[in-house]
């Protein structure tokens, strides 16, 4: 297991996440894509932490997880409230800010 | 020339208080009342408005009469002084103190200014009285008198000022009063346009006066008559010629001289008393005053002086020819005024020998022409405001006083002995025959033109007189359809006419025998006697002969033969003269139309370039905003996509740069 394997895996995970965000309409799925991208970043942080023998990256990964958990709470709350008012969880229906 | 200089040196009031002087006369200070009284009256009439309607006209008459009394007192005071001490400059404190230019507000009381003051206040008062009756049925009579008072004040300031700058204030004041009075019935668009035309033509002349003042300040360092006079001796002839020509331009504008004469005919739109006072007797002669007052400048600039004489000669023929063709009685009189002022300007262009005669003719002309204008007003009053002379005829039997007074004016302008014109106009013709600086051709040209003008004058004035008062009746119905009943005007109108007629008969003889020319000498200088190229009796005889020819010709054509009511087609010259010899056409083509095109192209340029730049910037901003707005679709995924694309591009760029 070299460094390259980890990097490629992280890139693949990130690409899958980004593609999900860009292509799927369902807000829940989009959210999952976002989580995937965050986790690919975490993987990178942990990888480099181990490589350098330094715990800073691992600590940072914990921070990311905490923020992601908070984000999921807020995000899901918004999605639920949007679904209640508009009977839809599609991100394309939420375009009220358009000029 | 040297005697002239020494005699015309102004004796400043403070300077004459030496031991030899009997008693220093300080009456000149009271000259300020001449200007103040009518000015205050005008202000009162204008500020009180309708509340002064009942008595306003009498206040106007009173103000004018009071000025005349002051003028008379000043005149008697000046007569009591020896001739060398009749020029008084009085100062009323510093007026302008701007850098190198320091100027007192001062008045000059001397024989020349006092002659004008007496003429303006006397004829002005008579015309005020006349207007009380003439304007009786006009709802704005009070306003009319306010303007008349304003005019009198401005005119007196013009002639009394002791500097060109203060003269300019009066000069503009009379221009304003003239504008207001020509357009007095401004509900009639044609009258308002006539007022505007007079105003604009006058402004063209004013530029001349402003330029002249600038040149004077540059050359002499001052604008008062004393400084200018003192500076002439050491000044460059070229500058003096320029000053002379600029002053002539100013005189042309104010006095309706060629080529700025086109406004005077249209100025007849004003009420007839205005035509009599402003556009015959006083304001239009201000140009002659300016030239005579600037005599020292012209004495040192012979070229400018020659141009003055040429302008006068052209205008006297021009006006006379136009006068022969006009059927409107007031316009015929206006053309005659133009021509007579041409005589005065010609005389002023002859130099010191002509100055006194120019002023002499100006005074007599002020009387007989004002008298004839008032007569014309009286005829219009009796004939339901008809002005077409072809619609008059035989009125002499119905309006006896108007007939007789008009006849006095008519004989005076013809120059028949012993009427006023004989003593003044014939003197000008005589002076025109005097060779200047040994150049006989000038004497023959100017003398010949003056003589020819006298003949044409006799023709057109006789035509006017016969068409109006003699021959058959050619009356049209009144405007309400009833028949004309010509009647004599009320006493308030006829008395001024009679007074002016007495002046037309006897003033020439009186002034001539009372030594009018010598009276003016302290102001205009002494002229040595010169022999004309023809013996004097021959000139007088020739003048009377051409006058008689013109008179008989007019008698045959307009008194004994039937005059058609509709104007006949006439010769080419007649048709041209009816159109003021196409002066308006020339002005339009040469000045008005190019000016109009210039302003139009400027407006276009302003809109296309200046406004275009400003509005163009706005339009570009709006367009860019419109284009960019379309990117904001509202789809969160497209925003995310652009973020990703941007990130990728950024990464690629960074990698490429770091290589």
Walkthrough of the structure:
The complex is a heterodimer of chains A (about 100) and B (about 650). By secondary structure, chain A is an all-alpha fold. In chain A, about 80% of the residues lie in helices and about 0% in strands. Chain A is built from three helices and no strands. In chain A, helix 1 (about 5-25) packs antiparallel against helix 2 (about 25-50). The model of chain A has no long low-confidence stretch (mean pLDDT about 90). Chain B has about 650 residues and is mostly helical. Chain B has 25 helices and two strands. Chain B has helices at about 1-10, 30-50, 55-80, 110-135, 140-160, 165-180, 190-220, 225-230, 235-255, 265, 270-280, 285-295, 295-300, 300-325, 330-350, 350-380, 400-415, 420-430, 440-470, 490-515, 515-525, 535-560, 570-580, 585-630, 635-659; strands spanning about 90-100, 100-110. In chain B, helix 11 (about 270-280) runs antiparallel to helix 16 (about 350-380) and helix 18 packs across helix 20. The model of chain B is unreliable at about 1-20 (pLDDT under 50). The interface of A and B includes residues 21, 25, 91, 94 and 98 of A.
């Amino acid at each position: 297991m070299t460094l390259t394997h980890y990097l490629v895996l992280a890139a693949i995970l990130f690409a899958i996440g980004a593609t999900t965000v860009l292509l799927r309409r369902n807000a829940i799925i989009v959210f999952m894509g976002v989580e995937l991208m965050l986790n690919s970043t975490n993987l990178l942080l942990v990888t480099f932490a181990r490589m350098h023998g330094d715990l800073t990256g691992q600590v940072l990964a914990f921070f990311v997880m905490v923020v992601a958990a908070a984000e999921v709470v807020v995000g899901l709350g918004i999605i639920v409230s949007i679904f209640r008012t508009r009977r839809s969880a599609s991100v394309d229906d939420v375009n009220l800010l358009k000029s | 020339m040297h005697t002239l200089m020494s005699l015309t040196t102004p004796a400043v009031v403070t300077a004459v208080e030496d031991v030899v002087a009997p008693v220093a006369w300080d009456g000149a200070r009271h000259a300020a009342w001449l200007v103040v009284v009518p000015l205050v009256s005008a202000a009162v009439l204008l500020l009180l408005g309708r509340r002064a309607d009942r008595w306003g006209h009498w206040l106007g008459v009173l103000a004018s009469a009071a000025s005349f009394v002051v003028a008379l007192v000043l005149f008697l005071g000046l007569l009591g002084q020896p001739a060398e001490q009749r020029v008084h400059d009085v100062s009323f404190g510093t007026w302008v103190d701007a850098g190198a230019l320091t100027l007192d507000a001062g008045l000059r009381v001397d024989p020349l200014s006092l002659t004008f003051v007496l003429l303006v206040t006397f004829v002005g008062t008579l015309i005020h009285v006349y207007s009380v009756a003439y304007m009786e049925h006009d709802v704005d009579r009070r306003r009319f008198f306010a303007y008349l008072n304003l005019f009198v004040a401005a005119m007196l300031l013009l002639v009394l000022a002791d500097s060109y700058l203060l003269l300019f204030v009066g000069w503009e004041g009379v221009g304003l009063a003239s504008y207001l009075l020509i357009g007095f019935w401004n509900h009639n668009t044609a009258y308002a346009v006539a007022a505007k035309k007079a105003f604009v033509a006058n402004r063209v002349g004013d530029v001349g006066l402003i330029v002249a003042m600038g040149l004077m300040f540059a050359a002499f360092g001052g604008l008062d008559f004393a400084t200018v006079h003192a500076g002439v001796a050491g000044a460059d002839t070229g500058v003096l010629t320029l000053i002379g020509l600029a002053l002539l331009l100013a005189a042309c504008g104010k006095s309706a001289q060629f080529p700025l004469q086109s406004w005077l005919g249209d100025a007849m739109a004003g009420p007839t008393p205005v035509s009599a006072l402003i556009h015959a007797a006083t304001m239009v002669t201000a140009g002659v005053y300016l030239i005579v007052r600037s005599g020292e400048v012209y004495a040192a600039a012979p070229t400018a002086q020659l141009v003055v004489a040429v302008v006068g000669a052209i205008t006297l023929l021009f006006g006379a020819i136009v006068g022969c063709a006009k059927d409107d009685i007031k316009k015929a009189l206006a053309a005659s005024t133009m021509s007579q002022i041409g005589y005065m300007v010609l005389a002023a262009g002859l130099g010191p020998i002509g100055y006194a005669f120019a002023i002499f003719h100006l005074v007599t002309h002020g009387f007989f022409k004002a008298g004839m204008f008032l007569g014309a007003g009286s005829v219009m009053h009796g004939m339901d405001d008809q002005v077409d002379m072809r619609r008059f005829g035989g009125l002499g039997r119905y309006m006896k006083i108007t007939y007789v007074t008009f006849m006095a004016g008519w004989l005076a302008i013809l120059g028949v002995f012993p009427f006023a014109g004989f003593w003044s106009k014939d003197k000008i013709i005589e002076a025109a025959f005097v060779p200047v600086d040994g150049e006989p051709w000038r004497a023959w040209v100017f003398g010949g033109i003056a003589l020819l003008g006298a003949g044409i004058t006799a023709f057109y004035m006789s035509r006017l007189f016969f068409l109006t008062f003699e021959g058959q009746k050619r009356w049209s119905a009144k405007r309400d359809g009833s028949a004309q009943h010509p009647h004599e005007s009320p006493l308030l109108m006829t008395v001024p006419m009679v007074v002016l007629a007495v002046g037309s008969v006897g003033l020439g003889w009186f002034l001539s025998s009372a030594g009018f020319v010598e009276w003016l000498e302290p102001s205009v200088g002494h002229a040595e006697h010169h022999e004309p190229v023809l013996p004097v009796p021959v000139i007088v005889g020739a003048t009377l002969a051409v006058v008689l020819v013109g008179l008989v010709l007019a008698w045959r054509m307009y008194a004994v033969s039937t005059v058609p009511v509709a104007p006949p087609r006439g010769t080419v010259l007649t048709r041209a003269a009816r159109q003021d010899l196409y002066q308006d056409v020339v002005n339009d083509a040469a000045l008005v139309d190019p000016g109009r095109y210039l302003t139009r192209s400027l407006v276009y340029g302003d809109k296309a370039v200046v406004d275009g730049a400003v509005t163009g910037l706005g339009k570009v901003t709006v367009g860019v905003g419109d284009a960019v707005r379309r990117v904001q679709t509202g789809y969160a995924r497209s925003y995310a996509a652009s973020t990703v694309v941007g990130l990728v591009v950024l990464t690629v760029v960074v990698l490429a740069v770091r290589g």
